[in-house]
């Protein structure tokens, strides 16, 4: 049966690949976006994840179109890289507000309907940077690491209601965000990846779709790396 799926930041990159994977699965898929609308065939909802009022409006639009959200993929994220001593407090807090607090806003709102239905899937999109740390990304790594503690706390709170909460941690995946990294840094990362290559957004999407499936019904509070082995041991 088709489920109501919401993917934040689902208009490009990994989010778009995830949205398309659920469409291929026969689900009813909505994606949030800010500036660039999603491709044809996806139900788009304009939403700034740092604005609680817009988050509430987005859920109402999705619920009116597809019914209560049964699968939430919190993928929206930004970077604003610089070294610690040059990083202003605003640079730090703005990245956390989008990546981490934004995920909290969506998960908290989605949990309402999931608890009523006694079933749900929440999947937070972290990063290998949140596991290993990355120079120049104190704010980004902190936001992605925070998702692990948040997800595991939610998993303990919501598990008895049939709701699973998990984290996917991609590595170096070919997206616009990866393209922003200096080529020297990307080459350095590729040299540390046991599989010796970039990841494809569709490989991340496959992991997300599995975590949302009935087959993964006994998996919660887990961190699933999709990084070619880059973060092994973390």
UniProtKB/TrEMBL annotation:
Report whether Lipoprotein shows up as a keyword of the record: no
GO function term, MF aspect, one: 3-oxoacyl-[acyl-carrier-protein] reductase (NADPH) activity
Q: Which UniProt keywords apply?
A: Oxidoreductase
Q: Which gene encodes it?
A: fabG
Entries under InterPro entries matching the protein: KR_dom (IPR057326), NAD(P)-bd_dom_sf (IPR036291), Sc_DH/Rdtase_CS (IPR020904), SDR_fam (IPR002347)
Spell out the family assignment given in the record's similarity comment.
Answer: Belongs to the short-chain dehydrogenases/reductases (SDR) family.
Source superkingdom: Bacteria
Q: Which residues form the Ketoreductase domain?
A: 3-176
EC number from the UniProt entry? 1.1.1.100
- Output the PROSITE patterns linked to this UniProt entry: ADH_SHORT (PS00061)
Question: What is the main EC category here?
Answer: oxidoreductase
Q: Which SMART domains match?
A: PKS_KR (SM00822)
UniProt source species: Streptomyces pseudovenezuelae
List the protein's name. 3-oxoacyl-ACP reductase FabG
